[in-house]
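My hope is that you will study the protein record below before we discuss the fold together.
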Amino acid sequence: MRLLSSPVLGCAAEIAKNVFSKSDLRLLLMKAGIDGYAPRSPYSKQDLITDTMYEAKRKAAPSDSAARQGLAEFVRLVAERVAPADLHAVLPGTPFWQLREALRADGFDLRTDYTPTGELTSIRLLPLDEPKAPLSDQITALEADFDRLGMTVAKNLYRQAVDNLVEQRFEAANGQMRSTFEAVIVHVATSRNFTSTKQGDGGPALAYLIDHGHLPERNGGAFIRGLWWITHTNGPHPGTSDAGEAYFRVQAITSAVRYLIDRFMPRQ
């Protein structure tokens, strides 16, 4: 498992500090397998959890897979403690909701299993991008292509979208991904003699590519058009998007932009 991000670990640590006693926190760290990173004589719950998480994360970053697994198990155990009796009762702002949203922004999901009578049986931490599809690698490659093609605006918008996703500003991420997608579509269409007359020409540019046979409906056009329509819902307006949707859009648009560049402007 890859290392969880600081926002996720910080969210889990804050929740744990509020719902566990100091002695229970020590047991929690033991169960997660990261008690070996704990300070010998912490003064408070805050010191215990902060110092342990910091040291485990420092060790995990380069090569310590046990520390990475331990941090993930810590997050899962915290989620298990605050999971509701009824998953449908999860409300925005509750600890479980906060942790689930933070994890979704990080590319993971909390999967909860209940008995028919409503008893929690298990909580699993699963990647949203299964099978393995490391988004960070895609981002790096795409930014390199933006540089190669001189698409500075698209690159800046894309980087802002990814940063906003990591910082859990989901509506902003959606809006910037839509603008990135539009910038690429217009750039591709312009390379095929489309004339852009104003900002926001993504729709006409896409129609041009499809209508002139550059991107036939049954050979990529329907896919790009469908995703284009999706990007015009739940945009940059507070409260209209959640982490799962925002992460999906970053993944889907990254793949679509990668497809357009590889098809129309491949590296020679």
Remarks:
- The chain is about 60% helix and 5% strand.
- The longest strand covers residues 120-127.
- The mean pLDDT is 84.
